[in-house]
Design a protein that fits this description.
The protein starts with a helix and ends in a 6-residue tail after the last strand. It is built from 21 helices and 22 strands. Helix 19 packs antiparallel against helix 21 (about 690-700). The chain is α+β, with helices and mostly antiparallel strands. It is rod-shaped. The strands form 5 sheets. A 5-stranded antiparallel β-sheet has the order 2-1-5-4-3, sandwiched between helices. A 5-stranded antiparallel β-sheet has the order 7-6-10-9-8. Strands 12-11-15-14-13 form a 5-stranded antiparallel β-sheet, sandwiched between helices. The longest helix has about 70 residues, at about 440-510.
């Protein structure tokens, strides 16, 4: 508009100067007619004046052209177009910028006024249609903001101003005006209104109290949340500017006052304090605000007050829970650990270190390697396996009793418990928490209890065995008692027919020396079975009869020699006698010892069946010998049936006689019953042989022991007292 006024002023000046030129030219023409002569003389001067005038006109035209270019440029820069409407012809003239603003080609004529309706929205066109006639009739200019519609359908906004153009008589002959594109401004205003609306909704619906406070006028603005939270309406707080400060807890007011005294414009502060609502309840607020200096010493404080009562209560609960947890940990004397499984970072409490005799400072730097360093290696392997199972979800918790190396070198027992609390996004274990409890005393008590239990079980087992043996012995004694009552009569009744049979066999062999071999074989068989029967009867009588012993000093070598003569081994069995030359005499009944040795030799030969090795050796108990008796050892190489001479100093008062075979051996089950009366593993016999041997040896002040291994052989050892004079 200002540019247009300047343009009009410039045009007025130019027009005035043109009018002056025309008047001077008319006067010159009149004078030319009357003063030709004078003008002829002055023609040269006049021509020069005319040339000067033409030059000035060209300069004016150039100025006008430049002014027009400046105007066009200014319109382009400011998006300001101009227009002119001739009322009589209803024709419109647009500036180039207005063409561009409406999206038309400046080379074409503007659309007629009747087509202008299409350039605006219906509402805007109605306003413009009402303003134009009003200005035309009254001459009062108009200013409007109109929404436009461009040729491509795009919407925009224009500010337009129009005024009437009148002639000399004051009649309106046209309208003229300017239009400016304000689309960006309107969009910015719309965005600002939308932003303000969003901000208003945000403030009104925010869970926090949004407020503005003046250090001179008190509360200026409070969001609706203030009434929901404190019970005071915003209007009530406006009417009572000091009510907010008066509602702050007395203990917190000095702290607030100190902060306000130091408050400066542009300074931010964040403080927590208590405030009382209309119901008398104390709420915790987190107040975060900033000051803004608005002049004349007034500072506006704008901020947010958040209700943190629940958080404070939770913090108090956490503090109480932490205190309780710490008290429990202190009371139970457990160590705690926190482990980042992915990084190995670990946190222990002081008690964890104390369990193994250290302080945390002594263990620094601390990581999972600290645990691995002090854990018992074998326990660490088992611990890792349990951890992997827990990580995989197989075990809900990790729990293991392990040993750790104490500072003083001993091993202490700890109960290690823990659980994975958090995991990574891909499911890997992240944070694991647990405890260490010193259970050394408990483990020691368990060991004592286990030892006591083992001892008790052993005693119970021994007592049970004693009771069982006593019961079996009692039953056995009852059997033997009955057997003893029957032995005398049975032996008499059996020996008489056996004697007849034996004599008959002898007679038949005498009268039939040339009997067939088959007959002789059967006679030998009958005689053999008669001898077996005789032995059974003899064993039975020996076992049931209390027989006195005729003990005397006797040579062991002689006893063994007589035994081997009376009970010779089959030719298929290799016999070795190991009898040192300096063996002392034993104090025993020679016949009973020979009977026992004979029984042992017969049993050994029967155990070896077709072939084998029989070793008979004698030693003084405690003597140093070159080869030890063992059920697994074979006879020394290089030995034969003849005796092997070795040196053996006498160191005790018992002499050992061992009969060893390489037979089938005796099973562990049968070893327990080997000396029980009536127990036998032979197809023939009544199981009294070894029982009789035991009785006879014990009657001579000795004992009998046996060692055996199935598939290897057996060794029976007699212990006989050495004659004291010989010792």
């Amino acid at each position: 508009f200002v540019v247009l006024l300047l343009l009009l002023a410039f045009l007025v000046i130019v027009t005035r100067r043109l009018n002056i030129s025309r008047l001077a030219l008319s006067r010159f023409n009149a004078d030319l007619e009357t003063q030709v002569q004078e003008r002829t003389i002055a023609l040269g001067q006049t021509n020069r004046d005319l040339e000067l005038e033409i030059s000035e006109r060209k300069q004016s035209e150039e100025l006008l052209r430049e002014s027009k270019e400046y105007l066009i440029e200014a319109q382009g820069i400011s998006h300001l177009g101009s227009w002119r409407l001739d009322v009589a012809s209803n024709q419109v003239v647009w500036s180039d910028e207005l063409y561009r603003m409406y999206g038309f080609d400046p080379a074409l004529p503007p659309p007629p006024y009747t087509e202008h309706q299409k350039l605006f929205t219906p509402e805007s066109w109605d306003r413009l249609s009402a303003a134009l006639p009003h200005t035309q009739e009254t001459g009062i200019p108009y200013e409007l903001e109109l929404e436009t519609v461009q040729k491509d359908g795009a919407r925009g906004w224009m500010w337009v101003r129009g005024e009437a153009v009148v002639d000399a008589s004051g009649a309106t002959v046209g309208l003229r005006g300017v239009a400016q594109d304000i689309t960006e401004r309107k969009q910015a205003e719309d965005a600002l209104r939308a932003s303000e609306d969003r901000y208003r909704r945000l403030v009104e619906n925010a869970p926090d109290i949004v407020y503005t406070f003046s250090n001179q006028r008190g509360g200026i603005y409070y969001s609706p949340r203030v009434e929901q939270l404190l019970g005071y309406s915003a209007e009530h707080l406006y009417a009572h500017p000091l009510l907010w400060n008066e509602s702050i807890h007395p203990e917190d007011r000095p702290r607030i006052a100190d902060i306000l005294r130091e408050f400066e414009a542009g300074k931010f502060f964040d403080i927590e304090y208590r405030i009382q609502d209309t119901r008398g309840n104390w709420l915790w607020l987190s107040d975060r605000s900033i000051g803004r200096d608005i002049g004349d010493g007034e500072v506006l404080v704008e901020g947010l007050a958040t209700d943190i009562t629940a958080r404070k209560q939770a913090e108090e609960g956490l503090r109480e829970a932490y205190w309780r947890t710490e008290s429990i940990i202190e009371g139970t004397q457990v160590g705690t650990w926190e482990w980042n499984v992915q990084t190995g970072e670990t946190v222990f409490n002081e008690k964890w270190a104390q369990i193994i005799g250290y302080t945390l400072d002594e263990l620094a730097p601390i990581s999972i390697k600290t645990w691995e360093k002090f854990a018992y290696p074998e326990d660490l392997k088992q611990s890792d396996e349990l951890l992997e199972r827990h990580f995989a979800g197989e075990l809900p918790n990790y729990e293991y009793e392990s040993r750790m190396k104490h500072k003083d070198g001993r091993w202490v027992w700890v109960l290690d418990r823990g659980r994975v609390i958090t995991r990574t996004n891909d499911g890997k274990p992240l944070m694991m928490f647990g405890t260490h409890q010193d259970i050394t005393e408990r483990k020691q008590a368990q060991d004592v209890i286990q030892q006591l239990n083992a001892t008790l079980e052993q005693r119970v087992e021994e007592r049970t065995r004693e009771l069982r043996d006593a019961q079996e012995k009692l039953v056995q004694q009852e059997k033997l008692s009955v057997l003893g009552q029957m032995a005398g009569s049975i032996s008499h009744e059996l020996r008489n027919p056996l004697g007849v049979i034996s004599n008959s066999i002898y007679y038949l062999k005498m009268v039939q020396p040339d009997a067939p071999d088959k007959v002789k074989e059967y006679l030998d068989l009958i005689q053999k079975n008669v001898n077996i029967s005789e032995k059974i009867i003899t064993d039975l009588l020996e076992f049931t009869r209390v027989k006195s012993t005729a003990r005397e000093p006797v040579s062991v070598s002689e006893l063994i020699r007589q035994t081997m003569e009376r009970f010779p081994a089959p030719a298929s069995i290799q016999v070795t006698l190991d009898l040192p030359a300096d063996l002392p005499n034993v104090y025993a009944d020679p016949q009973q010892v020979i009977q026992v040795l004979g029984n042992l030799v017969l049993n050994a030969c029967q155990a070896m069946k077709d072939e084998g090795k029989l070793l008979v050796r004698s030693r003084v108990e405690g003597s140093v010998i070159s080869d030890q008796l063992s059920v697994n050892s074979a006879p020394p190489s290089g030995t034969s049936q003849s005796s092997v001479q070795t040196e053996s100093p006498i160191t005790n008062h018992q002499l050992l006689i061992t009969v060893r075979d390489t037979g089938s051996g005796i099973s562990p089950e049968n070893m327990k019953k080997l000396f029980e009366p009536l127990f036998t593993t032979k197809p023939k016999g009544i199981g009294l042989g070894l029982a009789v041997c035991q009785n006879l040896i014990e009657a001579n002040g000795g004992k009998i022991e046996v060692e055996s291994e199935v598939g290897v052989g057996s060794a029976f050892t007699l212990y006989l007292p050495i004659h004291r004079s010989a010792a």
